[in-house]
Amino acid sequence: MNTVPRIERLASVLVDYSTEVQPGQLVLIESSPLAAPLVLAVARRVIEAGAHPQTRLAVDGLTETLLAHGTDAQLQWVNPARVEDYERADVRMVFEAEFNTRTLSSIDPERLALAGRAREQLRDRYLERAAAGELRWVITLFPTYSAAQDAEMSLAQYEEFVYGAGRLDEDDPVGEWRRFGDGLTRLAEWLDAKSEVRVVSDGTDLTVGVEGRTWIPCGGKENFPDGEVFTGPVETSLEGEIHFSFPASFQGRMVEDIRLRFEGGEVVEAHAARGQDFLDAMLAMDDGARRAGEFAFGMNEAIQEFTRSTLFDEKIGGTVHLALGKAYPESGGQNRSALHWDLVCDLRSGSEVFVDGELVYRDGRFLPGIY
Amino acid sequence: MTDPRIERLGDLVVNYSLELSEGQVVRIDGLEIAAPLALATYRAALAVGAHPYTNLSIDGLLELLLESGSEEQLAYISPVHVSEMETIDALVTIWSEANTRSLTRVDPGKHSRYIAAHRPLSNRRWERIASGEMRWCGTLHPTFAHAQDADMSLEEYESFVFAACHTDVENPAAHWSEVAQGLGARAEELGSVRELRIVGPDTDLRLGVEGRTWLAADGKFNMPDGEVFTSPRERETEGEIRYTFPAIFQGREVEDIRLRFEEGRVVLAEAVRGQDYLRSLLDMDDGARVLGEVAFGLNYEIDRFTRNILFDEKIGGTMHLALGAAFAQAGGENSSGLHWDMICDLREEGEVYADGELVWKAGEFLSEPVVHA
Question: CB distance from B1 to chain A under 8 Å?
Answer without folding.
Answer: no
